[in-house]
Amino acid sequence: MDPSKLLALLKQQRAIYDDVKNIEKNSSKRELRANTIKERLDKVQGLWNQFKDNHEKILLTENKEDKYFKEDFYNTVHQKVIQAKTMLEEIVESKDRNAESVESKSVDEKITESQIEKNKINNLVEQYNNNIARLRQMLENLDHYDTVTRLEQLNGIWKRKFEDIRSIYKKLVIEMSYNEVDIMNDYDEIEDQYDKALDELANKMEKLREGNNVKLDCIRIQNFNVKGEASKLIQHLPVSELNYAVAWEILSQRYENERMLFTILVDKLLDQPSVYNDSASSLKKLLDTSIECIQGLKAMGIKTNEADPIIARIIIRKLDKEGLRLYEQNIKRTKEIQKMDDVLQFLEQQYQAAEAIKSKKQTNNVKSFQKTTATTIVANDYQCFYCNKKEHMAIKCYEFLKLQVKDKNTWVKDAKICRVCLSHKTTKRCNSKTKCQDCGKWHNTLLHINSGQNNNTSTLTMNTGTAENVLLATAQVRVKSVQGEMIMLRALIDQGSQTTAVSEEAAQILNLQGKK
Known about the structure:
mainly alpha
């Protein structure tokens, strides 16, 4: 059934209950004529018929968690209807007893005492049969309950319902001498069924309690499955069935602090760093941490459903501008408050997209400064002997360029690489005619060592377009990336420059966002 329709029916049921209460209240304070009493009796009966029709529709819903079912609202209204009808009929009875002092009334307006008594009995019999049918239905649903707590609640409901049946039975048979065979037979049957169901319920509860007690003597274990500080707390206990309970108590006293757990989870959720939309690792960490905190709060018994929009907004604020733009574009219902499931689903999609892009390795764009008159080496298949990648040569390898000059020479010597072009082994003849730009000797400029050179600096020759060469200093610097990671890069220092620039490769390594 549609939730909105169910809500409307429940609201209508409570309105009917209020109307019956008002009829009973107003009738007890006023002197009423016979016609008015008859109209009110008919109205009460009409309200009750409407209530029963609505009740049949409500029973079709699968959700039995509403107070309507838990508080047995049907029986409450039925009893109120019986009380209202009984009171109105007693008013008529009282009027009949005082008929000698009142003008004679038409036969149609009078309700005899025997008819009132009959109506009382009929109402009680109807209530009696309804309670028996309801209790039988509950007794047959025992298999649907699988926890000790729910079985204990069910036992209380059964008990209250059976007490109602017993009370009506005594009133009919003992007080009103209504000795119908069907009434007594139904009582005997429901009493037997109730006693058997109680025995079955008790056995089921006992089995569930036994199942919750772990018997370690039937399990072969090597140690308590804890690590770190928790392991040190119980390391003095030998592994045994008795010590398992002791170990559990020690750990519970130390770590079962709900306020601390709540504080840790909420702070972890709030203190997450901002993420960048193209970083798969940061998106995954935001997604995993958020789910971990939310599930942790739920495990503590905290209902987070009503706070979902607030938590969703906290997570959204961790995205960068590009991520926020994509999220807004992804929203289908732009005027509704964001839902937690939608936000988590968006993060999952963005993480998968960033992971797919990351798997496609881009061509290395390292640019090295070379003399304009140098001979360019062209080959069909590039091979970097330093990182073993086929996307570039050693003179353009970012990892190789980060090395100190001394380390470069050591690697070239150990790997037996040509000292002139750095593009093949020494076993092959080198056709390069390029000499060192600093000393003019037959080795690559990257391998040139100046006397007194600092290990953390080197020089790079720049062609100025004239006959003179200008030597610019370089230095290795540690730069902090967007993710907070310190990365070693080489900086070119030009004291006469009026601008500061960064290469595309360095920007990608630092995960910087450029402006177009």
